[in-house]
Amino acid sequence: MMEFVEKRGKSVDEAIKAALDELGVEFEDVEVEVLEEPSKGILGVLGKKSALVRVSVREKPEEKIKETLVAILDSMKLEYRIEKVEYEQGMVRINIVGNDMGLLIGRKGETLNSLQFLLGLIANRGREDKIRVVLDVEDYRLKREESLRSLAIKLSNKVKQTRKSVVMRPMSPQERRIVHTVLQNDPNIVTFSQGEEPNRKVVISLKR
Amino acid sequence: MKDLVELIAKSLVDNPDAVEVTQIEGEKSVIVELKVAPEDMGKVIGKQGKIAKSIRALAKAAAAKEGKRVVVEIIR
C-alpha cells in the first residue's frame, strides 16, 4: 500500500509543502493529486476556499529492486549480505558480499549476469523511464571493468603501431560499452562492433 | 528450487495467479516444471530463449548449493 496524507493550505504549493514536511520526503519521491483548487472568493471574503492535496509516497525504485533481489537470493538459500545500494542517473548499482559468491557469479559470470538481466526486467515492468540495474559481487565487475579498460588501451596502442585493426573476443553489451567509452576520445582510433549476439565483437581500428 | 522458479515467474508475467510450478525430486537431480498462462509464455521464454536461459542459470546455481542437478522445463 502507498503511504499518503491529505493536507490543506492557502495555495496548492503550501499544501504540498505541509504534506512533504509531515511525510519527511522530497518532492521527487511523491505523487500529488489536487483534490480541491483554492479560490480567493469574491473580494477575498465570500466563498474563500483553501487548497486540498493528496500526496502519496512513491516506492523508491532501488528499494523495490532490493526487495526482489533479497527474495530471490533467500530462495536460493545463499549466504550473502547486501553491502551497498546506490541509485543515480537512472542506474541502480548493488554490491553483494558473502560466502557463496563463487556460486552466485557462476562460470564466466553467467549466473550473475542472468540475475542482473532478470532483475532489470522485473524492475522495468510498466515503467516508462527505464532503469539500468548493475549487480556486483565483491566488486568483481569493478575489477573486471578496470582490467578491460587497460586491455583496451593496450590494444589501441598496438593498433597505432602496427596500423592493423584488432578484433576482440566476443563480449556482452556492457563490456563492449566499456571498450567504446574508454577509447572514444582517442583521436587516432575508432571502435565499432560486428557480428551477432552472443558472438558480437568489438573491433579497434585506426581512424583514417 | 520450486520457490525460486515460482518467484521469478510470478514477477515476470501478467497473470501471476496462473503460474504453476511442480517439483519432481530425484536422488541427485530435480526436475522443475513451470506452467504459465498461454499469453505469458513469451514473458518467461524471451527473445531467443534469453529469459528461460537466465531462469535456468539461477536454478542451476541454487541446485549446486544442494549438490544437485536441475532441469527446468517450461510446459504448455
Beta-strand percentage of chain A?
A: 25-35%
The outline of chain A comes out as: elongated
Largest sheet of chain B: 3 strands, mixed
Instruction: Sum up the overall morphology of chain B in one term.
Output: globular
In CATH, what is the class of the largest domain in chain A?
Alpha Beta
Strand tally of chain B: 3
Structural class of chain A: alpha+beta
Explain this structure.
The complex is a heterodimer of chains A (208) and B (76). With 208 residues, chain A is an alpha+beta fold. Chain A has three domains: 4-57, no CATH class; 61-138, GMP Synthetase, Chain A, domain 3 (2-Layer Sandwich), CATH 3.30.300.20; 143-206, R3H-like domain (Ribosomal Protein S8, Chain: A, domain 1, 2-Layer Sandwich). Chain A has six helices and nine strands; from the N terminus they run βαββαββααβαβαββ. Chain A has helices at residues 12-23, 61-75, 101-105, 110-123, 140-162, 173-183, and strands spanning 4-9, 30-36, 51-57, 81-88, 91-97, 132-137, 166-167, 189-194, 201-206. Chain A has a three-stranded antiparallel β-sheet with strand order 1-3-2, covered by helices on one side. Chain A has a three-stranded mixed β-sheet with strand order 4-5-6, sandwiched between helices. The radius of gyration of chain A is 25 Å and the shape is elongated. With 76 residues, chain B is an alpha+beta fold. Chain B has helices at residues 2-12, 41-45, 50-65; strands at 20-25, 29-35, 69-75. A three-stranded mixed β-sheet of chain B has the order 1-2-3, covered by helices on one side. Chain B is globular, with a radius of gyration of 12 Å. The relative contact order of chain B is 0.23. The model of chain B has no long low-confidence stretch (mean pLDDT 95). The interface between A and B is medium-sized, with 21 and 19 residues.
